[in-house]
């Protein structure tokens, strides 16, 4: 099946495609649009070409208009295309791009199951809903949704799931630990690692704690406090918690509307209750 034929099928299904040239990157802007001299579309917030009829402006060229896709102006690009991409946000989708086996293993423990598409090195996990795009939200994990493109590698397998808050929270900047002294847990007497919990067990526990906070639909303050208390009661005395893991819990709470001050207070209160 030709790239053009596939693109037209995608457009008919409401998925806005665009051609990729050698290197699997979008076609460069034409001379008229070079350096965005044409101004592009206003703020580049919506897909589709500017007044230029050619597939310019990368992701913003993606369109579901069959007359544009099959136009003479796009014909040369389709002949040279080595792959097809699409604008996930324009299709109402978010793609969690997992670049290697470790990232996939993390997703299987931390994210809700959804439709997956195999890639050259990993997987794309597709969710119904849009959000801001971001690169490197975790090692080997990119978010592709609004104002971004993803390669089309087939429809995938599995039932697509609504975009969960835990994915949205991945783009929330981890809070600065303004009071590190209150967040430091006591080291294990005599040094060494936690004697009763493996790193895998700890990582699963942190992921479950993040999910518990993310899933809260009411009493968010109480849920955050109880979750912090549960984490500290298990790992607060053995020295295995890291600042990065604590910051993940804070980020999950802030994604639900908690302030950095509320997070710090909840953490301090939980430590106090446990005598840490």
Q: Could you please describe the fold and organization of this structure?
A:
This protein is of the alpha+beta class and 276 residues long. It has helices spanning 3-12, 66-69, 72-80, 101-110, 165-168, 180-183, 199-214, 220-235, 243-255, 260-274; strands at 17-21, 25-26, 83-86, 93-98, 115-118, 123-128, 134-138, 141-144, 150-151, 161-162. The chain has ten helices and ten strands. Strands 4, 5, 6, 7, 8 and 10 form a six-stranded mixed β-sheet that branches. The protein has a four-stranded antiparallel β-sheet with strand order 2-1-3-9.
Q: What would you call the structural class?
A: alpha+beta
Strand count, sense and barrel status of the largest sheet are: 6 strands, mixed
Distance between the termini: 64 Å
- The secondary-structure element order is HEEHHEEHEEEEEEHHHHHH
Beta-strand percentage? 5-15%
Supply database-style keywords:
six-stranded mixed sheet; 10 helices; 276 residues; four-stranded antiparallel sheet; 37% helix; alpha+beta
Q: Helices and strands in order, then pairings?
A:
Layout: H1 3-12, E1 17-21, E2 25-26, H2 66-69, H3 72-80, E3 83-86, E4 93-98, H4 101-110, E5 115-118, E6 123-128, E7 134-138, E8 141-144, E9 150-151, E10 161-162, H5 165-168, H6 180-183, H7 199-214, H8 220-235, H9 243-255, H10 260-274
Parallel strand pairs: 6-10
Antiparallel strand pairs: 1-2, 1-3, 3-9, 4-6, 4-8, 5-6, 7-8
Helix pairs in contact: 7-8, 7-9, 8-10
């Amino acid at each position: 099946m030709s790239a053009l034929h596939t693109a037209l099928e995608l457009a008919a299904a409401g998925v806005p495609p665009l051609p990729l040239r050698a290197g699997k990157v979008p076609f460069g802007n034409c001379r008229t649009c070079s350096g965005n001299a044409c101004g592009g579309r206003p703020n580049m917030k919506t897909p589709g070409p500017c007044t230029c009829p050619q597939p310019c402006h990368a992701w913003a060229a993606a369109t579901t208009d069959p007359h544009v896709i099959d136009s003479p102006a796009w014909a040369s690009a389709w002949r040279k295309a080595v792959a097809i991409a699409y604008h996930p946000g324009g299709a109402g989708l978010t793609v969690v791009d997992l670049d290697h086996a470790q990232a996939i293993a993390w997703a299987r423990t931390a994210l809700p199951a959804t439709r997956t598409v195999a890639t050259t090195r990993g997987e794309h996990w597709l969710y119904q809903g849009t959000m801001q795009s971001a690169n490197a939200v975790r090692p080997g994990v990119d978010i592709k949704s609004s104002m971004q493109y993803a390669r089309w590698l087939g429809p995938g397998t599995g039932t697509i799931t609504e975009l969960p808050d835990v994915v949205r929270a991945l783009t929330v900047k981890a809070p600065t630990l303004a009071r590190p002294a209150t967040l430091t847990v006591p080291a294990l007497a005599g040094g060494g690692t936690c004697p009763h919990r493996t790193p895998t067990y700890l990582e699963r526990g942190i992921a479950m704690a993040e999910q518990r906070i993310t899933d809260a639909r009411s009493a968010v303050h109480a849920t955050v406090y109880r979750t912090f208390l549960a984490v500290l009661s298990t790992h607060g005395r053995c020295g295995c918690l890291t600042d990065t893991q604590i910051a993940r819990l804070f980020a999950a709470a802030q994604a639900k509307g908690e302030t950095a001050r509320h997070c710090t207070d909840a953490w301090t209160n939980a430590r106090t209750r446990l005598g840490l």
